[in-house]
Every structure is written in structure tokens, then in C-alpha cells.
Amino acid sequence: MVTARGGGRFAPSPSGDLHLGNLRTALLAWLFARSTGRAFGIRMEDLDRVRPGAAERQLADLAALGLDWDGPVVRQSERTALHHAAIDRLSAAGMTYECYCTRREILQAVTAPHGPVGAYPGTCRDLTDAERAERRAQGRPPALRLRSRTTEFEIVDELCGAYRGLVDDFVLRRGDGMPAYNLAVVVDDADQGFDQVVRGDDLLASTPRQAYLATLLGWEVPHYAHVPLVLNVEGKRLAKRDGPVTLADRLALGQTPRQVFSLLARSLGYNATGPDQLLAHFHPEHLPTKPWTLTPGSVV
Ligand code: GLU
């Protein structure tokens, strides 16, 4: 997907059907890419929970709404050699260490009094060879963490502005040997030529880690746009249990894909029944900055 004009992407996890919040993020990713003359690609982030058939249904739903994409859909699980090569580069530079902590131990560890909240407390950062051998002998499969040289990094987001956030010794390779999300996303975006990252703002807090990692690997930090989430009437992040929230649910109610599209367009402040019509009027600076609350009666 590497193109001279750059690229944007939508990177869903194929763990189930996309709901209206995911579809709205996909539409925004498409709009940001197309309105800036970029290519647009889709990457299935299937290193984790995969539901059989979900990837195919997600693609069919995106196509039904009129979104198109360039090049073949890429599966992250087919790219693990690249992920491991990046981890090896960091290890060769002395920038990784094995971590034997369980999730519970990390939660229970007393963080340094002035340490950043939510950061890995560094328990395994300076283990001696003997201590490491002892833990290895207990048979715990280690994760591999970044030996970060900073505790913060600032990114600039097109919608959220300058955002300075935590960078800790985050996991690069999980205990099961698989690449961790924060590593894989950085490697894949750079390798696939995606210089524009549009996604839900629930991922904003992870972004300083990812941007810092990109700089360590010698890559350009992508342009970011974190878009507000869709909420249910209780003000919580929309979930599948919130009623008819997938395209299939809406079609079963007798709505058409065009009607579902115009609902999404309206939530962004536009009257449009298809992507090209919306693209002709799209101005990111006019996008709503608040989350969209989906009420059960929202139809068209
Ligand atoms: N796969 C992630 C998700 O579905 C998105 C990652 C990204 O866009 O960077 O939440």
C-alpha cells in the first residue's frame, strides 16, 4: 500500500460485527483519507479474539455503505515476521527487557510515589541475571517490554490538538510470544505507508507510546485524528447489547443501507445518502467535537 501520496486506513478487530460507532469511525477514516488525496486501506487486526466470518461480514458492511478501499485487505496475523524483526532491532539496541509479572502483580505493585499513574512500575526492569534465571526456572513465559527512555511524549492530533501523555515500559511481545498491539500497529502503519491514523478517541491515551516507538524505530510519526465515540443513552460507549446497532440489525428492521448511511452522515452534521456526496462537502474543522449519543429511535 506504500504510495507517494500517503495513505489512511481503517483497522478493525474482527471479533464480531461492526456497530454504528465502528461504522462511523470507518466512514470518518475514509473521509479523512479521500479528502486529503490519500489512498485508503483496510487492515484486519486479528492478533487477538477472532470470530469466524466476522472479517468477511465487516467488509461486506463497509461495502454496503458505499465505502471503497485500495489494494487487498491485509491481515495483521500474516505480518508477524515484520513485527518480530522490529522487536529484534529494539533488543539489539538494548531497548527491551523480559518481564515476568502477572497482571495481578502489576496492579498490586506499589507505584513509585511520584511515578505516573497507570504506568508499569518497572518491577522487572533491572533484574539481575540470577533473578531472571530464577523466574525463568519457575516456568513463567516472559513478555518483552520496551526499556523506555522517557515517561511522556507529545503528539498533535487534528481534532484533539496537542496531547501529552504517558510512555511507560509497555509490552512489545506478549507472554504467548505474539506481538503486542502497540508494537504491531506502529510497524504495520509505517510498513504499509499509512501516514494518517483516524480512529476512536478511546485510543488517544495509547498514542504517545506508539508515536514514541515510531521515532525509536526511525519512522515518521503519522498524522493523527482521534474521533469522538458513539454513546448509548446512559452515556456509555455503544455496545452490541444496546439494541439494533449493527447494519444487519438495521436491515432486519426494514431500513436500507442508504438510510443507515444518512443516519451516520447526520451524526456528523451532513445530509448525504452516500460517501461521495458527503465527501464533496467534508470539512474536518466542522466535525462535532462531542460524542454522538445514539437514541433507540434514531432512524434517518
Ligand atoms: N484494532 C483497533 C480497534 O479495533 C484499532 C486500532 C487502530 O485503529 O489503530 O480498536
Structure write-up:
With 300 residues, the protein is an alpha/beta fold. It folds into 2 domains: 123 residues, HUPs (Rossmann fold); 101 residues, Glutamyl-tRNA Synthetase, Domain 3 (Glutamyl-tRNA Synthetase, domain 3, Alpha-Beta Complex). 33% of the residues lie in helices and 17% in strands. Strands 3-2-1-9-10 form a 5-stranded parallel β-sheet. Strands 4-5-8 form a 3-stranded antiparallel β-sheet. A two-stranded antiparallel ribbon has the order 6-7. The longest helix has 16 residues. The mean pLDDT is 94. The site of glutamic acid has 8 residues, from strand 9.
Intertermini distance? 35 Å
| Strand adjacency order, main sheet | 3-2-1-9-10
CATH topology of the largest domain: Rossmann fold
What's the gyration radius in Å? 21 Å
Number of domain modules: 2
The percent range for strand residues is 15-25%
Number of strands: 12
Task: Encode the helix/strand succession as letters.
Answer: EHEHEHEHHEEEEHEHEEHHHE
| Count of helical regions | 10
* CATH class categorisation of the largest domain: Alpha Beta
Mean of residue pLDDT? 94
Contiguous uncertain segments of 5+ residues? none
Largest sheet entry: 5 strands, parallel
* Helix/sheet category: alpha/beta
Ligands and ions found: glutamic acid
- Oligomer classification: single chain
CATH superfamily of the largest domain: HUPs
Residue share in helix: 25-40%
